[in-house]
Write a sequence for this structure.
């Protein structure tokens, strides 16, 4: 037979302290381990739980993947025959500010109904930066890249950016070559082709 343990002598003090403590902002609340109910809690009638607490929360929908560009659009861009609707030049921005400015630009252009924009990053200060290939693929050689040129493709793969972007590729030399990217924006729901 198991012995019954007597209640902890200071349990009621701990419950009193726990009720008065304010949680830190930005810290997730951790569920407390169930303990013996306090005499005050046992005397109160059980209140009905709010309906919102009973329903499980849905996780936010995952952003759509980058689908890339269709073959026809890709060929037009590779030949430099792109109909660019807007452009942004990120020269002179630090990495953190450039990310914020780029996100704002993409949101604004998507709301305006733009489909193809040009993002100019610059090629970097390397003596090799002038000779870069354009088209579907490009070299990821560190000595040929400026910081923004290296970061922008990484940002465009992030979930926050994928909500606005379907695909991208390096620009034709007439639009900046390896120092710029064509970015295809998603249509907003309800827009027609």
């Amino acid at each position: 037979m198991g012995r019954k343990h007597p209640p902890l002598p200071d349990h009621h003090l701990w419950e009193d302290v726990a009720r008065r403590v304010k949680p830190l902002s930005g810290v997730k609340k951790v569920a407390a381990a169930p303990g013996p109910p306090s005499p005050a809690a046992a005397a109160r009638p059980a209140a009905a739980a709010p309906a919102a607490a009973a329903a499980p929360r849905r996780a936010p929908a995952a952003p759509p993947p980058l689908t890339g560009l269709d073959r026809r659009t890709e060929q037009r861009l590779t030949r430099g025959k792109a109909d660019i609707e807007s452009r942004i030049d990120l020269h002179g921005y630090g990495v953190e500010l450039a990310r914020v400015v780029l996100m704002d630009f993409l949101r604004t252009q998507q709301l305006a109904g733009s489909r193809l924009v040009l993002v100019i990053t610059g090629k970097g200060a390397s003596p090799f930066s002038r000779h870069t290939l354009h088209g579907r693929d490009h070299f990821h050689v560190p000595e040929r890249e400026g910081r923004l040129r290296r970061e922008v493709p990484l940002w465009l793969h992030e979930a926050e950016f994928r909500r606005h972007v379907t695909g991208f590729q390096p620009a034709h030399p007439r639009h900046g070559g390896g120092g710029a990217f064509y970015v295809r924006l998603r249509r907003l729901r309800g827009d027609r082709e």
